Amino acid sequence: MRIVPSSSTGLEVVGEHRLFWEYGSPLFVYDADHIKSQALNLTQAAHGFHISYAIKANSNKFILNILKNNKVECVDVVSPGEIYKALANGYAGHQILYTENFISEEEMDYALSANVIMNIGALDTLNSKFGIYASELDDVARIASDHNIKIIGLHQHIGSNLKKHDQEVFLNTTEYIFKLLQKFPDATKVNIGGGLGIKYQSNDELLDVKDLYDQVKKYRDQYSTALSREIQLWI
Predict the structure, then answer these.
(1) What tens digit of pLDDT does each residue of 130-152 get?
(2) Where are the domains of the chain?
(3) What's the fold here for domain 32-234?
(4) Of the N and C termini of the chain, which has fewer Cβ atoms inside 10 Å?
(5) Entry pTM
(6) Which tens digit of pLDDT belongs to each residue from 112-124?
């Protein structure tokens, strides 16, 4: 076994079999400096955003600590186990966004007891990662009012591996989300989702992330003024 330099992974030569014999097998090697660099690139492009890391991508506690110490201050979780892991790694309830489809009452009770932010996506269980139709939003507002549920923000997720050709659609749906805020007087958070693409093919054209987020900030400023409330941006 030999680990060689790679522009895509950032790994360096560490010597023939050295890590294997020192730490045993199976062995997973992560480059902390590369993770920090990627976090820095994102936080600079998304300056002014609250940035969430999806724990399902990799829940290694050392990686979570690296991200948390490099301005990725929130996490997205999809199960009670991930809520527990986030809390155990020092995240507070307001830094945890919980999205799970087909949630049970027991799971919802645990999430509420942990004071996490709940991502609501269906009228029947008030939770599903697949989302609510725009035509149902008046019903959502009515149900929230009837049961004293506070809707604090709106969230979109239009896909994964988004590339340059997706930017126009992304911005159109994002502006639509801002327009919908008027239905919910307590809503001050807009989460535009993640899904940023990577270069799988040599001819893939990636999003200009800074340009994309600068456009979103313009919507934030416009609708903060129009609705007379300070709107927070999340990804």
Answers:
(1) 678 888 889 888 988 898 888 99
(2) 1-30, 32-234
(3) TIM Barrel (3.20.20)
(4) N
(5) 0.79
(6) 999 999 887 666 6
